[in-house]
Amino acid sequence: MFASGSISPSLSWKRRVLLNLERAMEWTGMGTAYVKVRGIGGAIALMYHSIAPPELARWIDPGVRKTPEVFEEQMAFLARHRRPISLTQLLAELDRGETPPAGTVVVTFDDGYLDNLTVAAPILARYGIPATWYLPTGLIARGENPWIDRLYTAFETRTQNRLSLDLGSWDLADATQRSTAFQGLTEALIPATYGERERLMTRVIDRLQPVATPPRLILSWDEIRAALREFPNLEMGLHGTDHVDLSHSSPGVVRSQIEGCIADYRRELGRDPVHFAFPYNRHSTPARAMLRELGLRSAMGSGDDESIGLDTDRFAIARIDPPEERSLFRFYTSGAFPSLPKTILGRAA
């Protein structure tokens, strides 16, 4: 989950330069030529969250959602021009010592949004694309919406513009202060424990007095079971129990979050889980070791290289947030990313 979208800070000049360079690599065909000449291989994992229909989009932070139109266009492109495979198939190929060919793509979804079933799954089925859904099992059991969307709705439907907390005081009628406040709250909520997070969210909502509450945005276990029956190309993974940052949590919290979601998964789906995604892509050496100890086979998390190959740590598989711009989406899934930009900029490929 990433809190960004309409209230993100502007891109830095370095980021703008890099994006323009990557666009040029796609427009000129440099990326395609580079892959062929260098014999580049490796898979890319895409990280989606919500694919909200118009009637639900108003409740979901723009930084974690794609429109159905953009998502369908991207899946159509993958089906025609790339090699979309399941995460399980990717791991099997790596186990055999096979480097995935350039253009291999794995599609994943975090946070268990209901629209993954109502909108994304039929699109995936239409194009024959497999996907992995990572489930925050405690949120699903409670029918609890992701905190980023509850915060976003509180800001968007507030009746009060003055927000004063221990973290600071802001006039939300001012766009700059509103952005600063949202970003500051996000930075405080990500590393918080579940209890700390809920207490801070309660204070924010009490002070802003929003006029609306989001409908249920998250899947139920019955809906997950129905999805597995109806869409055989789907596989389920784990995303912790309460979607807390496991990179700085105490060993006891890490174990309870991991063991708790494994127990939930086994009880509700009657099978053993094999895939995990670290909340916020944040992880630690003890957390990765614990997943291995408990029998899981992979974990998504921040890593040094988005290209997945034989040398990739199976418990720190990096993903990319798919850009909506067509040229960038094509470049990022071509096999030339991230090696070619690194080469041109003088860093190790």
Task: Note the overall shape.
Answer: globular
By oligomeric state, this entry counts as single chain
CATH H-level superfamily of the largest domain: Glycoside hydrolase/deacetylase
The CATH architecture name of the largest domain reads Alpha-Beta Barrel
> Mind telling me the C-alpha Rg?
20 Å
Tally the structural domains: 2
Distance between the termini: 28 Å
The class by helix and strand makeup works out as: alpha/beta
Mean pLDDT: 93
Largest sheet, in brief, is: 5 strands, parallel
Count of distinct strands: 11
Which labels suit this protein?
alpha/beta; two-stranded parallel sheet; disordered N terminus; 5-stranded parallel β-sheet; TIM Barrel
What does it look like?
- With 349 residues, the protein is α/β, with parallel strands linked by helices.
- The chain has two domains: 5-140 and 232-344, Glycoside hydrolase/deacetylase (TIM Barrel), CATH 3.20.20; 158-208, no CATH class.
- It has helices at residues 13-27, 30-38, 54-57, 68-81, 87-95, 115-127, 137-142, 147-156, 175-189, 194-208, 221-230, 251-269, 285-293, 326-332, 339-344, and strands at 43-48, 50-51, 65-66, 83-84, 104-110, 131-135, 162-165, 168-171, 234-238, 275-277, 298-300.
- Strands 1, 4, 5, 6 and 9 form a five-stranded parallel sheet that branches. A two-stranded parallel ribbon has the order 2-3.
- A hairpin with a 2-residue loop joins strand 7 (162-165) and strand 8.
- The radius of gyration is 20 Å and the shape is globular.
- Mean pLDDT is 93; it is low at 1-9.
